[in-house]
Amino acid sequence: MGSIGEKHLSRLAVPKTWQIKRKGIKWISRPLPGTHSIDRSMPLSLIFRHLLNYTRTNKEVKYILNNQEIFVDGIRRKNPRFAIGVMDVLTVPKLDQYFRVLLNRKGKLRLLPIQEKEANIKLCRIKNKTPINKKIQLNLGDGRNILVEKDEYKTRDTLVIEIPSQKIKELLKLEKGNLVYLTGGKHVGEVGTIEDVKKNKLFYKRDKKLFETDIKFAFVIGKKAPLISLSEVKK
Predict the structure, then answer these.
(1) What predicted TM-score, i.e. pTM, was given to this entire model?
(2) Per residue in 95-152, pLDDT tens?
(3) Is the domain defined by 121-172 classed in CATH 3.90.76.10?
(4) Nearest CA among 145, 176, 170, 166 for reference residue 158
(5) Best CA proximity match to 112, nearest among 168, 192, 189, 43
(6) Phi/psi of residue 88, nearest 5 degrees
(7) What CATH fold (topology level) applies to the domain 4-117?
(8) Run of H or E including 64
């Protein structure tokens, strides 16, 4: 059996990006290692207890995961420690509810309700590339890998993919005129239009003002308009 340190975090060690009720809590479920960094994801147990307020205990979370179909990026998940992170899609079919994980302007992880028609697409940033047998493997920020024939993709570009099939629907380049969503820095959660890219710096416009940020925070989300909802939509 694993120790407390392997399966839990102390209250003081919880990432600042997590929106949880800390009072009276000593130990919190540690997310399984995997696709996202710990400060850009939360385990399903905390999602259900603190963001959705569906349950009050881990026992209730386990019951829901075992008895209802809960999907992350189109794949059913049953482990309460499974981590979901930025841009992941959470689906609760029984309640006809769909959510995308984003960051708010304070840098906190949040669940944004979306419509069903949007729940089958995901935006993935290209982390790096690997040549494999005359093909190119695109290694994406959420841990998935996609093999392509043509080397027309660049690091930090964004793929619009169908989930769970991983079929590429569109390529969004990190270039002037496209829209970016910022995943870190003092402008976290903002959206702007790319003006220029210079080495490790990105310059973008928002409300007719020019801003600068580290390029590692830039996540391209569209051309003339964002391809995902950034505010709550009504059914």
Answers:
(1) 0.88
(2) 999 999 999 999 999 999 999 999 999 999 999 999 999 999 999 999 999 999 988 9
(3) no
(4) 170
(5) 189
(6) -65, 155
(7) 3.10.290
(8) helix 58-67
